[in-house]
Amino acid sequence: MAVVAALSTLFRLYNSTWKSSERLRKRLNMQGIGGPPPSLLYGNVPEMQRIQTRAALDDKASACSRQRGGGEFVAHDYTSTLFPYFEQWRKEYVFGSFDTGPFLDKMEKEDQ
Length: 112
Description:
Elements: H1 2-30, H2 45-69, H3 78-82, H4 84-93, E1 97-98, E2 101-102
């Protein structure tokens, strides 16, 4: 009885964590909305860290060039500084946008 309960718990855990996200990813891909593939244990964390490291190095290089040039640059787009992976993924995977930003439109089917 304990073995059946343990297997049932493992199956539910697998289904709720991995399988449901794969179903959602498949539906989005069928609609033309891609994204970076996640790993089983870490998701997209290694890619996010790699992008953040690259962005930090780019920021240091641009800060050094600004110090040499003497000009001070103030940007109010803080999201690309805090979350550079969102900016990169938006450029790679988002297919539509308005002036306010990217969008995904979900249409509900009307019952007749």
